[in-house]
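Record type: ASSEMBLY
Status: queued
Input:
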Amino acid sequence: MNRREFLKSAAAASALLALNTGCGGALRTKRKVLALAFDGLDPGLVRRYSALGLMPNAKRLMQMGSLRNLATSNPPQSPVAWSGFITGGGPDVHGIFDFVHRNPENRIPYLSTSRVNPPTRTLDVGNLRLPLSGGGVELLRKGEPFWRSLLKNGIPVTMIKLPIDFPAPQDRGGRFLSGMGTPDIRGSQGSFTFFTDDPRSLSDDTSGGIIVPVRDQGDNCYRCRVTGPQNSLIAGSPVMETTADVWADRTAGAVRIDVNGRSFVVGVGQWSPWVRFSFPAIPGISTVFAIGRFYVKELSPKLRLYLSPLNIDPENPALPISGPDWFARSIAEAIGPYYTKGFPEDTKALSRGIFNDDDYFSQATNVFDERLRMFTHALGNWKDGLLFFYFSSTDLNQHMFYRTIDPESPLHSSVAPRFRNIMGELYAKADRAIGQAMELLDGNTDLMVFSDHGFAPFNRGFGLNSWLAAEGYAHISRPEDRNKDMFACLDWNRTSAYGLGLNSLYVNQAGREPDGIVTTDEKYPFMQRLARDLESVIDPLTGRRPVEKAYIVSDMFPGKELPPFAPDMIVGYARSYRCSWETALGAFPEEIITDNTDPWSGDHCVAPMLCPGSLITSSPMPEGLALQDMGAVITRALTGDS
Amino acid sequence: MTALLAPFRNSPPFSGLLAISLVFGVIMILIFKFTSNQKAIGAIRSRMGARALGMLLHLHSPVTVIKAATALMVDNLSYLWRIVTPMLFIAVPFILTAAALDARYGSMPVPRGIPTTVTLTWDELPAREGFTVTGAGITVIEPVVFVDTLRQTSFRVQNASPGATVTAGGVTLPIGASAEGSGSVIYRGAARMNAAERLLKPFLAPLPPESPVTGATASIPEARYSILGGRWSWLTVFLVYSSLSAIAGAAVFKVKV
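Status: finished
Output:
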């Protein structure tokens, strides 16, 4: 069966299922599908490591069925790609174009996947502000998830750690645990706290976390203030805090941490178990619970104590991380507390130098091992229907360790010998999970292992905004502020385009943006010229083109009316390139193309054809499938007998 | 209590807690029956019913309603006075049973694979040199942290078997479950206690007065029980099921409450 016929039959299965829903009947199926998602699993590396014998299970699985490249989304960012998987459509359907969108009315960026809405009515009693109506967390992804028709037809669905699924759906009959996009307890995508009495470590940089100065009280006790969420029940929404008393015993090389009446001994270079923090919003009535893990990086001569981002406590979730509510709790009862936030590996701590490779690796190992325990639990409880299970470790660890396999990386030579084979070990660990899943294969069960995109090296950062300024597309009126953000340094009356987010480029359009200067009539020819200019840029150091292809978004979705927050162009970078760190934040540094010296050395924000995902299945699949076809493919597999 | 729970030794902890709660509810309602003036309580209840009915029948007459309401309040006070004596009789077994249940169902056993910190408070902090901690039926994880200011030593344990003990600086303490199976005491620490304190705090192992250790605590996780989608403490489970059992017992044994 070729791709076209296959997709037609998959679409027909979905349509029949929808039709059946309308008739109110329930399909009876004995078919089961285990969908195993490894974020960023690269087909090229799967082939390489399978050939080297590091992925024997994947090799066996592809011999049973097939290994295919799985076309990814444009841009190949996880939120965009997984939204396509969920809805079966592109950004025009699900409305997710990038990690961040911007409000055209003020150009302020915001997280594209979910937002917290304040209550519309409150009852104010003294200092108390009690919500009466409205408010809550809103999922910004649009479109109909593919599992709804399965559920309506009586086919059980369990989706564990599904990305772009926060707040978790409450669809009747389904079980959902939200994954990527789930914030920490403070509402950010992950903010660590680093307590130290070493003045050399202090910094005003708040990206990824905060450094908190502490001092010995004179008795080897450090009183550490742990910051929780804002208290929305009190006027002014003050930040809630609790205290951790850290007793240092430098002779023993360990500390005792006292939190909420419980004690934890942790040695240097060790992790505490999960520690539960409570933040009383209204004492005795409402308490927010969170969990975190301490890591004693150093004790002598100075204390260097890391506290992970505070995760939503799965046993007492303050936000809707699962549907039904008890589902997150039931997992915690079985395997213990677990990372609930969407990006569990603390890549920012490594990028900021709080962690070294060893520290990061130990934390990432904790995450992967914990997820494997959750996977074993999920397999043990899976009876029928669809089980989707997601691993983030393959993505985030490739981001941080791609430099170990890429000789062109500016950091390759500084990789310690013990990390030289880390990527192979990562794929081998993923392979063990595949082997575990294969044990469940029988005549009625399909196993589909897939990823949202592949991977590419990220050695050179392209300063999109700096290039726009150099080419006259943007005008910097306050050069002293060019390293801050575009709001501070640009003259918008002389700026026709700007970059924000990882792949997005926006036209400063008259009537849409304040001080917009490009008229609707001028816009398309302007974008054509801009695309040509971008694609012809040459990196003077390497002689290569940083931009593989610049996509005009209106050409990608002809005839569709796109939302005002949608970008006008998507910049598809060449392998080894990505937008610079400064561009993602809207800054305009002087240098246009620079070496990427951040440990974040692999990426996938390139042109989509350069980093397809992987699809390994127990039944042969045709070539040419895309991630957004997978919902229909799963539906077809589940209803194949019907 | 241990003998009462013996049949549930191999069952999940919830089953033993449920059984005790149901038995306790019936016993309490019988104590109430035999220690209260049932005739007087019956009369007060009838009177209170009549007052309420009178209020409903004379809603058009505010004076009558106020009179009836005042009388109802007086009857209520009279009712409360009548139940003081049986409640005092019930309070003693309730406190003792609650303490015994808390010791058995209030905590989880020391979890496997997750270190639990044990802290000992000393009269005088022992010297670091030569201070050792060993475990029988439990794994002790070095190092030992000395907190001079609080005269405390802390260390980690994990993988406790029933009946496990830890010996630190020559002092031996039980940690975790006292025996195999549901319904055995789970020791959360130790303390020097008199006889009354031992009855009220059976979750603490008794320390002799001459012990150099004044107290010990183990950060053992609190136990929660899943019922109807919620997770509840042992006390909530006990109160709910013993109340339900008492209500049923009142109907069966014709107890006027």
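Annotation: The longest strand of chain A covers residues 114-125.
Annotation: Chain A has a mean pLDDT of 92.
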